[in-house]
Design goal:
Layout: E1 2-24, E2 34-42, E3 47-51, E4 57-63, E5 67-80, H1 111-120, H2 128-141, E6 143-144, H3 155-161, E7 163-164, H4 166-179, E8 184-191, E9 200-208, E10 212-217, E11 222-223, E12 228-234, H5 237-240, E13 243-249, E14 253-264
Parallel strand pairs: 6-7
Antiparallel strand pairs: 1-4, 1-5, 1-13, 1-14, 2-5, 3-4, 8-9, 8-12, 9-10, 10-11
Helix pairs in contact: 1-4, 2-4, 3-4
Length: 267
């Protein structure tokens, strides 16, 4: 499937920002099953490109003059091939898979999470069917409800509240899987969908020894396939977020994000 993507992020500040630096993970990964046809990032300054420790394509934007807004506009086309039960092919893998067993503040598994995952998977997670079983159980337990959480909401809070969005589903899923000592990672990207869920999306990958990385969309209870365009992977949202940065000055910040994904079936 050819995905045609437009992604605009606009920051506004109530006072001038004297200095800002942002890390942009706004270029899709160059993996075996997805290929960039064209891609352009329009930013208010020069971009320094590199590949991070997770194999993500990143750009650094530095602004050292006063500014009251930043607009980042991305337009491009990506050809994404279908996946069989979510199984990924080869990729730029710079970390050992067990680096993805490390829990983070957003994906820490407490006693409640351990009890939940043991109840869902009493024999552990060893197969692709187990991955879907856990994704379905999380979706049943945590209702999709925008506006009730933010990027700082941790997995234990998500389970306790019982509602959240795709990043919350992913963080809880990661906490459960890593709680079973199985490597798993966060995925940020885009989703072509006719439902009300946002085109900007998050899901997860799980490492199974005999299969490799298997990608699962927890929110939609299915394996990821050609409707999913991968931007970045990491241990959690903080290490895979499309835009992260720091600034000096600026007063209060507001942000508007607009994402459109159109699809053209592969000929």
């Amino acid at each position: 499937m050819k995905q045609i993507i437009t992604h605009v992020t606009h920051y506004r500040y109530t006072a001038p920002v004297n200095y800002s630096i942002q890390t942009l993970r706004l270029t899709p990964r160059d993996d075996e099953h997805q290929r960039l046809l064209r891609w352009h990032i329009d930013a208010p300054g020069a971009l320094e490109k590199q590949v991070d420790a997770y194999g993500n394509i990143t750009h650094t934007l530095t602004l050292n003059h006063p500014h009251t807004d930043i607009e980042l506009r991305v337009v491009g086309q990506v050809l994404v091939a279908p996946l069989t039960r979510g199984v990924l092919g080869s990729e730029d893998s710079r970390l050992p898979v067990h680096a993805y067993c490390v829990q983070t503040p957003l994906t820490q598994a407490d006693d409640t999470i351990h009890a939940f995952v043991r109840g869902v998977l009493p024999n552990g997670l060893t197969t692709s069917d187990d991955i879907l079983t856990l994704a379905t159980a999380i979706n049943d337990r945590v209702a999709y409800e925008p506006g009730t959480t933010d990027v700082t909401t941790a997995a234990d809070q998500v389970l306790a509240m019982g509602h959240g969005v795709c990043q919350d589903h992913a963080h809880l899923f990661l906490a459960c899987v890593r709680g079973l000592s199985v490597p798993a990672r966060y995925v940020s990207g885009y989703l072509y969908t006719a439902t009300e869920h946002a085109a900007s999306h998050a899901w997860a990958d799980v490492w199974l020894p005999d299969i490799g990385w298997t990608s699962v969309d927890i929110t939609n209870r299915q394996f990821a396939s050609d409707c999913h365009c991968r931007l970045a992977v990491g241990r959690d949202y903080d290490s895979a977020a499309p835009v992260r940065g720091v600034r000096t000055g600026g007063g209060e910040e507001s942000m508007e994000v607009s994402v459109q994904v159109q699809a053209q079936p592969q000929q």
